[in-house]
Each structure stands twice: as structure tokens, then as C-alpha cells.
Amino acid sequence: MAAAAVAVGCVLPEAAGAFTATAETVPGKITYFGVNDPRTTRDIEQRLIVRAGPADEHLLLIVRLEDGQVSPGPLRIEGGGALGAPQLRAAISASSLTGGRGGCEQPTVSERTFHYDLRLPAGTRTIVSYAGRVRLTRAPASPALFVQKWQLAPAPAGASSGAVTIASKPVKLAGLRAARVSMRVAVAGSGRSIEDGGRLVVRSRTSLAVGGYVARAHQGDAVTIWRFAPGAKSAAPLARARIDRHGRFSYAWRPLRRGTWDLYATYAGHRGLVEPARSPCGGPQVRVTRDVSARRLSASA
């Protein structure tokens, strides 16, 4: 599946020296093997376009590559400039969990910082670039999927140009139609219900309808409903529910264990047409209290 490339640039204001620079992110083709297949990827190209002033420039190019979601290739150079050998200066890894226990788990991001010696003859236009490959099934559902930052600074023995940082504007690289998942939990036979971010207090063994809506989903696709059990630090599947022709899904649930349950739902996407999605961070929360008739039950939901 191919998609038209869209270049998004950000033009630097002129610094103390004479050079100017522009950054671009250019999405390329999609290679599709399935919504849960790690081989489902999209090609991208990151470009830094530098225009030298009336005098030769000797600069230090600092490149930070995040390879938690993107597999970056080697840097290339076109035009009149010359690029020295890379020097690895730093490497870090980080991961985070936002929004509390029921929040969105962010993938681990590995970042490496390289320094390059960059020489630009006067009046030349030079393009420094690299090709990467985004793993679509592991990327977060965010419009700002990937932003490349470049930095240019005076080399120790070079021209006295001012140090500048340039970043490509965020672009949506997935190239698939965006889905949106919302959740709703209702007490069966009553008017009590909550949506994402709401909290519901019920007795043990109360019959609940756990469902929601998936925008742009296809009839027959499945949603996985996840729950954090009381005291649990990680989520586990509660159920898989089919999506009807109106985009709705539902599952009947009777929680037994007392305590607070955090819920969310994920959608795996559809055949290279609709991207994966999940319900908002901090989804519906169900607090189960004591039920006299269930005191001796040791089973848990």
C-alpha cells in the first residue's frame, strides 16, 4: 500500500552566522502484513537542508536519533558539503506510564546522540538525510508520531556561526484512517452509567454493561476490553467484544472482588485501512463494595 509523500518543514531564523537551515519529514510507502504484525511498517525520510552563506562554514552537526519506534539508517549527504565520521556521544533509554494505573503505557524510547563534523563551501546547498522505518503496530495513536531534532553549532576551529536547533514539524506517519475508541459502563436495568474518566460505585455481583463506540471501525471487528484488578499493577484482558454495524460493542460483566477496577479498550485496526487505537487514558473506574450475599465467595472476576 503506497501513500503520497508529504514534506513538512520548519525554516530557521538566520543565526549569528550566515547559514540557514530547514528540516523536513517525508512519509513514504506502507508495507502491510497485518495489524498485529511487527513487519507492518512505513518508510520515512528525515532531511536537514543547510544553505551556506558567502563564506565557508565549519560546523558541528548534532543528531539525536530515537529508535524506540523508528529504525534509523545511516546519514547521507548530498550537495557541496562534506560530512565527517560519526562520534557517539550519548545513549539513553526511557519509558513512562501516564495517567496513573489506568493510564497510557508509553513504549520504551532509546535515544542516541551523534556528533558530525560538517564543512560547507560558500554559497552551497547541502542536504543531510537518513531513511527510517516506523513500526506502525507499536506506534502510539498520536498526531505527533515522530519529530526529528537537529542541532548546528560552531566547530571548535570553525566559523563563528551561532548555535541553532531545528525540529521537523510533527506529522502523522501511520497513513491509515484514524480510529477513536470511547467507553461506557452502565448498571443493567437502571439509568446509572459513566463514560471515560467517570467513577461508578456498585455492590459486588452487580450486573454491568461494559461497552462503547469505535469510530471508523468495521462491522465484525473485535475490541479487547482490559481491566486493572484491585491492587494490580498491570492490566489483563477482561473480554473481546464484537463491533456491530453502528460501531458499538458491549460485554456483560459481574465483578465479584471488592476494590477499584480501572477499564480501557483497544482496537487492533482493520486490514491496513484503519489504524489501531485505544480509549482515552484514565478510562471508566468501577469501585466494588461489600455485598452481604457474596461474603463467602472467594472467586474473582
Written overview of the protein:
With 301 residues, the chain is mostly beta strands. The chain contains no helices and 22 strands. The protein has strands at 8-11, 20-31, 41-51, 57-66, 70-72, 76-79, 82-83, 87-98, 104-120, 125-135, 149-154, 164-167, 180-187, 193-195, 199-203, 208-215, 222-228, 236-242, 248-253, 259-267, 277-278, 285-289. The strands form four sheets. Strands 1, 2, 3, 5, 6 and 10 form a six-stranded antiparallel beta sheet that branches. It is elongated. The two termini are 42 Å apart.
Note the topology.
Elements: E1 8-11, E2 20-31, E3 41-51, E4 57-66, E5 70-72, E6 76-79, E7 82-83, E8 87-98, E9 104-120, E10 125-135, E11 149-154, E12 164-167, E13 180-187, E14 193-195, E15 199-203, E16 208-215, E17 222-228, E18 236-242, E19 248-253, E20 259-267, E21 277-278, E22 285-289
Parallel strand pairs: 15-22
Antiparallel strand pairs: 1-2, 2-3, 3-10, 4-9, 4-11, 5-10, 6-10, 7-9, 8-9, 11-12, 13-14, 13-16, 16-19, 17-18, 17-20, 20-21, 20-22
Descriptive tags:
0% helix; disordered N terminus; 301 residues; Immunoglobulin-like; mainly beta; 52% strand; 6-stranded antiparallel beta sheet; 22 strands
Give a quick rundown of the structure.
The protein is built from no helices and 22 strands. It has strands spanning 8-11, 20-31, 41-51, 57-66, 70-72, 76-79, 82-83, 87-98, 104-120, 125-135, 149-154, 164-167, 180-187, 193-195, 199-203, 208-215, 222-228, 236-242, 248-253, 259-267, 277-278, 285-289.
